[in-house]
Amino acid sequence: MRLRILILTLFLLLAVSSSTWAGEKTVFEQMAENSIAMGESQAISYDQLQKILNSGEEVVLLDVRDESSYEHGHIKGAVSLALDKLNEESVAKILSSKKANVIVYCQSFWCPMSLKASETLHKMGYTNVLDYKGGIKEWQDLGQAVEQINPSAT
């Protein structure tokens, strides 16, 4: 009887731990699975964005608003690439791989630029693109700080 319990226990431990051996999903992948599909775009919430940013995983945060809006205030660590300048060449300078983890954002829930940027990146072959729908407005409304370029000039 003890041998059966021991064998059963070992079997269960093996079954549970095998999912870890198979490779756990990254936080980025988990949030992508829990995102809201909008055509080819995957929309994420503020909470999902925070989980990704706090995970320590490599991610490129892409601000697709115009340069002056970016300079006025952007999420810390974000890279500016205005939607009207988004093309194969400009993207290749920022993203090291078509499999890079990318989060795009713009002004707010009502701003269509991040959706357009996400769809464009997908058409270019980038496979890990998420769209933070709340944008800089929600970020600031929730008390998060922004970085500015040349803040003394504003």
Architecture overview:
The chain has 154 residues and is α/β, with parallel strands linked by helices. It has a single domain, classed as Rhodanese-like domain (Oxidized Rhodanese, domain 1), CATH 3.40.250.10. The chain is 44% helix and 14% strand. The protein has helices at 2-21, 27-33, 46-55, 67-72, 88-94, 113-123, 135-141, and strands spanning 36-38, 41-44, 60-63, 79-80, 102-105, 129-132. A six-stranded mixed sheet has the order 1-2-6-5-3-4. It is globular, with a radius of gyration of 20 Å. 29% of the residues are buried.
Strand content: 5-15%
Helix content range of the residues, please? 40-55%
By secondary-structure content and strand pairing, the structural class works out as: alpha/beta
Distance between the termini: 77 Å
SS elements, strand count: 6
Shape: globular
Lateral strand order in the biggest sheet: 1-2-6-5-3-4
Main pleated sheet: 6 strands, mixed
CATH level 3 topology: Oxidized Rhodanese, domain 1
Rg result: 20 Å
Q: So, CATH architecture?
A: 3-Layer(aba) Sandwich
N-to-C SSE series?
HHEEHEHEHEHEH
List keywords for this structure.
154 residues; alpha/beta; Oxidized Rhodanese, domain 1; 6-stranded mixed β-sheet; 7 helices
Quickly describe the structure.
The protein is an alpha/beta fold.
Secondary structure layout:
Layout: H1 2-21, H2 27-33, E1 36-38, E2 41-44, H3 46-55, E3 60-63, H4 67-72, E4 79-80, H5 88-94, E5 102-105, H6 113-123, E6 129-132, H7 135-141
Parallel strand pairs: 2-6, 3-4, 3-5, 5-6
Antiparallel strand pairs: 1-2
